[in-house]
Amino acid sequence: MSLLIHKQLCLIVTGGIAAYKAPELVRRLRDAGAVVKVVMTAAAREFVQPLTFQAVSGQPVHGDLLDPAAEAAMGHIELARWADLVLIAPASADFLARLAAGLADDLATTLCLATAAPILVAPAMNRVMWEHPATQANLVTLRTRGVQAVGPDSGAQACGETGPGRLAELPAIVAAAEHWFSGGELAGVRLLITAGPTHEAIDPVRIITNRSSGKMGYAMALAALAAGASVTLVSGPTALSPPTGSVIKRVTTAAEMYSAVMGAVIEADIFIACAAVADYQVAAPAPHKMKKQGRELTLTLIPTRDILQAVAARPHPPFTVGFAAETENLIQHARAKLTGKGLNLVAANLVGQSGTGFDSDENELHVVWDEGEKQLGRASKDALARRLISVIAEHYRAKHPARA
Ligand code: C5P
Predict the structure, then answer these.
(1) Measuring from atom 1 of ligand 1, which residue has the nearest CA?
(2) Separation of 167 CA from ligand 1 center, angstroms?
(3) Are 164 and 204 in contact (CB under 8 A)?
(4) Is 277 near ligand 1, meaning CB less than 6 Å away?
(5) Atom of ligand 1 at shortest distance to CA of 325?
(6) 323 lines ligand 1 (CB under 6 A)
(7) pLDDT of the chain along its 404 residues, tens only?
(8) Number of domains in the chain
(9) Which ligand 1 atom sits nearest the alpha carbon of residue 274?
């Protein structure tokens, strides 16, 4: 059953070419059980007729702050109180900027300022506008206030360019709206998780890899979904099925994992690096199968890029969580990783013992952060993942208080 049943959604449509998709979004939200009232900015009315929204929503469409009929009853305050969720789709660069600045010069911005309901934005714009530091800084400001974002997607744009800035797919927007009502610790939060080993080619048939099964990363994805998060899982080669509801990106090498993570991290609120990424790759993999020569063989290895460190070093990093698999001096090494890579949290486990760590069903975790640490004990990877997600949610929420 949809979590949107009887939920009161105020959909703000702003001016952008993707506004033509908004009537279909209204239909899908209503199909999921929501009651939808539409507010249009002046620019949005240049793209789509209010009458279209009135027909698909079955409700009057609101546009003017100074509409005497509506404002006699304090229309904007009524709408602000009525909404369980304010959804802005498409959200233009201009609207994000106005929201970040706290303007209240039209009905849509005033409503956002006057509401206590959570706000979800689905940005859509030209890729250069999306990547502009001003837009990115506005998003950071909004996120710290508890505003959540869904998308944008990457792909062909109306302006003829290709890149990030397309309105997220409508089912993803509906799912993000549903997440708000899931009531979990990570409701509405977007997680990016790496899992599994990587394969580094020696030649077309031989690889360098490690004993990671991916179980811990997949268990983390499942626990995060159960806590109401939306999850993108970047997975190296494993035999596991991705949890239903996650977006899976399959990769083979450390370099591919790096690219997949960097392509998705801008949309992540939390990054969890569970993968056992190869530290080295073969400098020049042989193009054909190497023949046995019966004598010593030397391979030249070059370092791979550290994905976790690169994410943590971004100008506006998500909340970053690393894993430390150690065979000795666990806490000391975990603390060195926390500060060395500039992370928010490190989950450390001893490997090399039988029954825990790589390729086993059980694990034993110890979490460390700047001012403290917590023993999560020994348990199944599924149980530990749930405990760890809880600790991550607590620290993330302390840093980004959600709107009431
Ligand atoms: O420095 P070390 O490899 O021990 O750190 C382990 C942590 O860093 C894990 O969270 C792992 O997923 C991450 N890592 C990474 N990219 C690498 C190597 C490690 O994301 N190339």
Answers:
(1) 337
(2) 32
(3) no
(4) yes
(5) 4
(6) yes
(7) 678 988 999 999 999 999 999 999 999 999 999 999 999 999 999 999 999 999 999 999 998 877 766 655 567 788 999 999 999 999 999 999 999 999 999 999 999 999 989 999 999 999 999 999 999 999 988 987 778 899 999 888 888 888 899 999 999 999 899 888 887 899 889 999 999 999 999 999 999 999 999 999 999 998 998 788 889 999 999 999 888 778 899 999 999 999 999 999 998 999 999 999 999 999 999 999 999 999 999 999 999 999 999 999 999 999 999 999 888 899 999 999 999 999 999 999 888 776 666 667 778 899 999 999 999 988 888 889 989 999 999 999 998 876 43
(8) 2
(9) 12
Last residue within a domain, chosen from 143, 160, 179 = 179
Side chain identity at 42, as an amino acid letter? A
Whether residues 147 and 293 share a domain: the answer is: no
CB 217 within 8 A of CB 196: yes
> Residues 281, 258: one domain?
yes
**379's tokens:** 């348990």
Instruction: Report residue 367 as tokens.
Output: 């979490």
Query: Same domain, yes or no, for 265 and 377?
Result: yes
CB distance 384 to 363 below 8 Å: yes
Which conformational region is residue 193 in: left (phi greater than 0), alpha (psi within -120 to 50 degrees), or beta?
beta
Helix (H) or strand (E) holding 47: helix 44-47
- 213: domain CATH number is 3.40.50.10300
Indicate whether 172 and 208 sit together in one domain: no
In a domain, 1, yes or no: no
Rounded distance from Cα 273 to ligand 1 centre (Å)? 7
Widest CA span of the chain, in angstroms?
91
Ligand 1 neighbour 306 (Cβ under 6 A): yes
47 with 171, same domain: the answer is: yes
Provide the whole-model pTM.
0.69
Q: What is the residue with the minimal CA distance to atom 9 of ligand 1? A: 323
Nearest Cα to Cα of residue 394 among 84, 130, 184: 184
- Is 86 part of a structural domain of the chain? yes
Quick check: helix, strand or coil at residue 400?
Answer: coil
* Residue 202, domain extent: 190-403
Q: Is the CB of 275 under 6 A from ligand 1?
A: yes
Question: Is position 112 annotated as part of the catalytic site?
Answer: no
- CB of residue 200 inside a 6 A radius of ligand 1: no
Q: Which CATH number belongs to the domain containing residue 137 in this structure?
A: 3.40.50.1950
- Residue ID of nearest Cα to ligand 1 atom 4: 324
**Inside any domain, residue 317:** yes
Using a 6 Å cutoff on CB, does residue 254 contact ligand 1? yes
User: Quick one: 343 and 219 in the same domain?
Assistant: yes
